[in-house]
């Protein structure tokens, strides 16, 4: 029987300018916001205190932006880096142009902005991804540029069981 294991892309499979749409979307719940906020010790009342947040410019609690960023990047993993990533190298140009509220659905997409072989790590390459999160109304709520180190085809060591 033929078997196929889901995986991300190897260095040679990334094409500059290609946009990947990550589906399904993820509807943000009350529990998501409160749990993530408290797990990360972020006591910002804007995320936790409904009465106080109602007096602020958005008129309600705003979902923790780090949850939004984590969800955006996490949505890309299965399609782009599952099992092929060596390391997450860093983020630049992170922005949250519009707020996310409980009940919003996040849809993620990633565009390959560049790829180069690593100069110091043979068999690996650096890929630059531009991630975008949109809500259910197609409004951009988060963007980030991320660099990842990925394996080249045939260079990844065998998995140990």
Average residue-wise pLDDT = 95
Strand content of the residues, in percent? 25-35%
Rg from Cα: 18 Å
Total domains: 1
Structural class by sheet pairing and helices: alpha+beta
Q: What is the H-and-E element order?
A: EHHHHEEEE
Straight-line N-to-C gap:
21 Å
Main β-sheet: number of strands, strand sense, barrel status?
Answer: 5 strands, antiparallel
In the CATH scheme, the class would be Alpha Beta
CATH superfamily: Hotdog Thioesterase
**What's the helical proportion of residues?**
10-25%
Instruction: List the total number of helices.
Output: 4
Widest beta sheet: strand line-up: 1-3-4-5-2
C-alpha geometry: elongated
Features:
Acyl dehydratase, MaoC-like_dom, Thiol Ester Dehydrase, Chain A, 5 strands, alpha+beta, 161 residues
What does this structure look like?
- The protein has 161 residues and is α+β, with helices and mostly antiparallel strands.
- It has one domain (11-151): Thiol Ester Dehydrase, Chain A (Roll), CATH 3.10.129.10.
- The chain has 4 helices and 5 strands; from the N terminus they run E-H-H-H-H-E-E-E-E.
- It has helices spanning 30-39, 45-48, 50-53, 65-80, and strands at residues 19-27, 85-95, 105-117, 124-134, 140-151.
- Strands 1-3-4-5-2 form a 5-stranded antiparallel β-sheet, with helices on one face.
- A hairpin with a 5-residue loop joins strand 4 and strand 5.
- The longest helix is centred in the middle third of the chain and has 16 residues, at 65-80.
- The two termini are 21 Å apart.
């Amino acid at each position: 029987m033929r078997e196929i294991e889901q995986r991300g892309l190897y260095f040679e499979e990334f094409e500059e300018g290609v946009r990947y749409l990550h589906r399904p979307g993820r509807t943000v719940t009350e529990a998501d916001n409160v749990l993530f906020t408290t797990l990360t010790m972020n006591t910002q009342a804007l995320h936790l205190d409904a009465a106080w947040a109602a007096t602020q410019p958005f008129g309600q609690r705003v979902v923790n932006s780090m949850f939004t960023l984590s969800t955006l990047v996490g949505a890309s993993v299965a399609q782009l880096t599952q099992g092929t990533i060596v390391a997450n190298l860093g983020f630049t140009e992170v922005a949250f142009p519009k707020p996310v509220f409980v009940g919003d659905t996040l849809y993620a997409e990633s565009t390959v902005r560049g790829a180069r072989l690593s100069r110091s790590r043979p068999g690996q390459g650096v890929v630059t991804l531009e991630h975008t999160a949109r809500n259910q109304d197609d409004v951009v709520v988060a963007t980030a540029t991320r660099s990842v180190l990925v394996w080249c085809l045939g260079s990844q060591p065998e998995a140990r069981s």
